[in-house]
Design a protein that fits this description.
Strands 1-2 form a two-stranded antiparallel sheet. It has one domain. It has 21 helices and two strands. The chain is mainly α. The chain is globular, with a radius of gyration of 22 Å. A hairpin with a 6-residue loop joins strand 1 and strand 2. Keywords: Membrane, Transmembrane, Transmembrane helix.
Length: 496
């Protein structure tokens, strides 16, 4: 009851004309940045940070939170329309969303993404307000063994969203892991796989790999098959709203995606990528079990679940930031710096010392979700008209924005060269039927898995049994074994 009263007081502060305007500006700017490939919400927050110092703290953080939410939301637009995610968290959405767009169902894909983001974000905001203490306790339970088990679980779960060939999936995962370990080893300081290049000492960033694999690779792929494929402008946009059948198909995936995404926001370094791929894999397995799977042809469940998981993770990521002073993503790390610039230290005392600001910020999350839905849902047909732009202009623009996004991350020409090298690798993988999802998962989770494995072995003085000392890790491994055994059994039955 106390949380409810504090939240109502937060709404009173967040709904002042100035704070409401700042929230609107934040979600609009975040959405615009999220649409551009390679430019993430973390970059948008970082660029806006100096400007917010002229504002009072409550308004500044409401605006930054709006940018965070809008950036996560906007990444799905180009993922669906152009197979080019604006954010790495929208990678899973691209797989089925783009197929829906090519099938003339772009507005339906955009609408289910918008509503899924709203559902996931709203439920997550409720969880943040009323269950924050439990989520903080859950985050504190994770140590090296739990992180490693989580990474292994994600590696195996990737098999749910790849091609039918396990060999090709493992090859793709191996390539991703290889790209992820390039650079200086953080424990020993030894340079690995840099080929003598100073530009590779910092490693290959996730931005470079994401943009290269999904943007440049798509441009090269389309340019090669352009003469033998339908022009995008010849695709009919279709109906602008979700019909009853689409709503029935999306409702449970929205809820399941939200449930998967909630705990990951509270886990340091958890990120939105893991739950989005896990939710995509779950929906694919459930559809195959029902015997009416549209996956591979544009399944609306493959858009609904990842987007709900994405936004639920985003909201919950503020729990460890506010309650522990622990950022769980690049964007929350920038927001942590903003708190420190204002002379505040996030942690258990923040709710007591700066309660008015914290509850206004939490209330603004609900407002931002509503604004995002109001701003984006009516424009689904308008976004779908991007498909009518001549293909050569459209993909030339993608290449330009992708190049700018890769360069803007570190202002390094070497990253532009890398993004095109990765794009060429992605093109070759596509041509040979090798799936791309495991490559991305390997790059994102490979360094985490390696670091946490070494930490766990150091704590256990070389005893591998330390990896099974945690109940959470044991549960993850058990679920993994059951899932793998079930998948093998289903595959054997399908062959007989």
């Amino acid at each position: 009851m106390e949380a409810w009263n504090l939240l109502l007081a937060g709404f009173a502060d967040a709904l002042t004309p100035l704070n409401l305007l700042l929230c609107l500006v934040g979600v609009a700017l975040g959405t615009a940045v999220g649409v551009l490939p390679g430019l993430g919400s973390s970059m948008a927050v970082a660029l806006l940070l100096p400007l917010t110092f002229t504002l009072e703290p409550t308004g500044a953080f409401i605006m930054l939170a709006g940018v965070y939410f809008g950036g996560q939301f906007g990444g799905s637009t180009t993922a669906i329309l152009l197979n080019t995610p604006g954010q790495s968290s929208s990678m899973a959405t691209a797989f089925e969303g783009f197929l829906m767009a090519r099938a003339g169902r772009a507005p339906q894909a955009l609408a289910t993404a918008a509503i899924g983001s709203f559902v996931g974000g709203t439920i997550a905001c409720i969880a943040v307000v009323f269950f924050a203490p439990f989520l903080v306790d859950f985050a504190l339970e994770f140590g090296p063994a739990e992180y490693f088990a989580l990474a292994v679980f994600a590696f195996a779960a990737t098999a749910a969203v790849v091609a039918d060939s396990a060999v090709r999936g493992l090859i793709a995962l191996g390539l991703g892991l290889a790209l992820g370990v390039v650079g200086i080893d953080q424990q020993t300081g030894v340079a690995r796989y840099t080929l003598g290049s100073d530009a590779l000492l910092d490693g290959i960033s996730v931005v470079v790999v994401t943009v290269g694999v999904l943007a440049i690779g798509e441009v090269l792929h389309v340019s090669v098959r352009a003469r033998n494929s339908d022009r995008l402008q010849d695709i009919e946009p279709g109906r602008p709203w979700l019909g009853r059948a689409d709503l029935r198909s999306s409702l449970l995936p929205w809820l399941r995606g939200t449930g998967i995404g909630l705990p990951f926001g509270a886990i340091p370094a958890g990120g939105s990528e893991i739950p989005t791929f896990l939710s995509l894999g779950l929906e694919r397995r459930l559809a195959a079990r029902r015997g009416s799977s549209q996956f591979g042809r544009g399944a609306i469940e493959g858009v609904a679940a990842p987007e709900a998981a994405n936004n639920s993770t985003t909201a919950v990521s503020l729990v460890p930031l506010l309650g522990l002073g622990l950022p769980t993503s690049a964007t929350t790390a920038v927001m942590l710096g903003a708190f420190q610039q204002y002379g505040m230290q996030p942690g258990p005392l923040l709710f007591a010392d700066e309660g008015e600001l914290v509850w206004a910020l939490l209330a603004s999350l609900f407002i931002g979700n509503v604004l995002l839905l109001v701003l984006n849902l009516p424009f689904a047909p308008l976004w779908a008209k991007l498909l009518r732009i001549p293909q050569h202009y459209l993909y030339a623009a993608i290449a330009v924005f992708a190049t700018l996004g890769a360069y803007a991350a570190k202002l390094a020409i070497s990253d532009v060269v890398l993004v095109y090298a990765v794009g060429l690798l992605s093109f070759l993988l596509r041509r040979n039927g090798v799936p791309l999802a495991p490559v991305l998962i390997g790059v994102i989770l490979g360094p985490l898995a390696e670091r946490e494995l070494r930490r766990a072995m150091a704590l256990g003085q070389g005893d591998p049994g330390v990896l099974l000392d945690s109940p959470i890790a044991v549960v993850l491994y058990a679920v993994l074994v059951v899932a793998v055994a079930g998948a093998l059994l289903l595959r054997r039955r399908s062959r007989t």
